Amino acid sequence: MRFFKEYKKQILIIIVFFSVIFSLLSIGKSSGIPVISELASVVVTPIQKLSSNTSNFFKDKFKAFTSTSDLTEELDELKAENQRLLNENKRLALYEQENIRLSKLLELSQKYKDYGTTGTTVIGKDPGNYFSTFLIDKGKDDEITSDMVLVSEGGLVGKITEARNSFSKAQSILDTKSSVSAMSLRTGDLGVVKGSYSYSGDGLCIMEYIDSDAEIIAGDEIVTSNLSDIYPPGITIGTVKEVIQGDNELTKKAIIEPQADLKHLDSLLIIKYNKEEAAP
Amino acid sequence: MRILITFIIVIFNIVFESTFLHAIQIRGILPNTTLIIIVSFALLRGKYEGAFTGFLCGLLHDIFFGRTKFYFALIGLLMGYIVGKANKNFFRESYVISSIVTAISTIIFNIIIYITNFMLDGEIGFLNYFIYILLPETVYTTIFSLIGYRILYSINEMLESKEQRKRFR
Questions:
Q1: Which residues does A238 contact at the CB level (< 8 Å), separation at least 6?
Q2: Residues A150, A140: contact at Cβ < 8 Å?
Q3: Is A154 a residue whose pLDDT tops 90?
Q4: Other beta carbons within 10 Å of A26
Q5: Residue that is last in its domain, among A85, A106, A127
Q6: What are the domain boundaries of chain B?
């Protein structure tokens, strides 16, 4: 103990020196500090799980008190929709069988495959106001690797950036460092969906590099394109809210309203998609 | 004893920050409780303990949310050290001084982050950054620091009286 008291200044300088070196070395890499990371995660992750579960529990309880009439109304609507979806599902199953039969006949491979999925829960969100990263409660132990894709309510949420043993770090599409190759479902125009500071406060993101001739209008559905290495094609991102002219006359921008409620993430679905496996 | 309690406070902070605090965000802006803890420790205990606490808080943030390791740790260490230099010059009982120091250090903290992260990126201009992030965060953090500083002050008082009793025995 006396050793620390005597050489305070020297210890401080050494820590600063090593921090600078390590931070410069680790820029852009997603590998952790092995020993300290695992140790910290063993201590913190269980508490985090408990605390986010408790806060969700109370949120649900309060919701039940405040909106009983809304809930019964919603239940009726959902029942009707469920009935409708069941009918549709039967019809689509027939189509699928027909599709398989016909593509066997033509010797085509399936374009839209079923991917394996796992459910997961958000256990912590970035406390800073600059980035939109969060933690989920599945990790390497559940065969999760980085670059797997997260969806919620049928809309794209983001991707996993770093998988550790018992938890993973994920990046939402609202993050300014995230970019997703996207296309308009109606017209097939390509673009890149990015996070933006001016809009992320309202839970919106922006689609850039759209061709100026593109006939994209408000209300169009935006899905992931088949150009991406990470995101499987055909996942809904959101709908166009407004189209604005870019800085030059060559490109347009579109403000996108994401389908998933990115400001209140709770339970998510991980899509186990791997480009190398998927490629024929 | 003191080291143990510091660890507990820091771990509690990262859990609290990443879970419960999101329930009271206003338009996506959260108060920076990490900075409140660093400033309080530095004001109450001096530059070395401030630097140590800042390093610990930043390191945990880096492990769980950071993309560059030791980045927030370094900023936290610097903030703790700089604020801790003022430790001898101020009355620690004063609410006013603690909140002014918190406000100033939030601004410095955010400007460091802006320079190292966003200035060369071109994604957001300084004026936008100032209006959308820096200003609301400073106001929110300063209000929160009134509560946070009081809690940490009484914890520190308790520990100090215990240490004094031990010394006189």
A1: A155, A205, A221, A222, A256, A257, A258, A259
A2: no
A3: no
A4: 19
A5: A106
A6: 2-8+33-158
* Any A CB within 8 A of B77 CB: yes
Instruction: Report pLDDT digits (tens) over A168-214.
Output: 889 999 888 888 999 988 888 899 998 887 777 778 888 988 888 88
- Same-domain status, A146 and A254: yes
Query: What is the least distance, in Å, from the CA of A206 to any CA of chain B?
Result: 12
Query: What pairs with residue A255 in β-bridges?
Result: A206, A242
Looking at the predicted complex, does its ipTM rise above 0.85? no
Residue A142 within any structural domain of the chain: yes
Q: Is residue A158 part of a domain?
A: yes
CA-based end-to-end distance of chain A: 63
Structural domain including A72 reads: 67-106
Assigned token pair, B148: 């946070």
Q: Flag whether residue B65 sits within 8 Å of chain A, measured between CB atoms.
A: yes
A130, A264: one domain: yes
Q: How far apart are CA B161 and CA B37, in angstroms?
A: 21
Does residue A30 belong to any structural domain of this protein? no
Residue A204 CA to residue A189 CA, distance in Å, equals 20
User: Tell me, what amino acid is at B58?
Assistant: G
Of A32, A51, A130, the CB nearest to B63: A32
Domain count across chain A: 2
Q: Model confidence over B106-161: pLDDT tens digits?
A: 999 999 988 887 777 666 778 888 888 889 889 999 999 999 999 999 998 888 88
**A146 plus A78 within the same structural domain:** no
Residue pair B34/B137 in contact by the 8 Å Cβ criterion: no
Please give the CATH number for the structural domain made up of B2-8+33-158.
1.10.1760
CATH number at residue A248: 2.40.10.350
Residues of A in contact with B35 (CB under 8 A): none
**pLDDT per position as a tens digit, B64-121:** 887 777 888 899 999 999 898 887 788 777 888 889 999 999 999 999 988 887 777 6
Contact residues, chain A, for B74 at CB < 8 Å: 16, 19-20, 23
In degrees, rounded to 5, the angle at the alpha carbon of residue A182 between the alpha carbons of residues A180 and A187 is 170
**Do A80 and A166 belong to one domain?**
no
Contacts of B155-163 spanning 24+ positions with Cβ under 8 A: B155/B5, B155/B9, B156/B44, B156/B45, B159/B1, B159/B2, B159/B5, B162/B1, B163/B2
Q: Please tell me whether residue A227 adopts helix, strand or coil conformation.
A: coil
Name the band, by pLDDT with cuts 50, 70 and 90, for residue A33. Answer: low
Mark yes or no for CB contact B63/A33 under 8 Å: yes
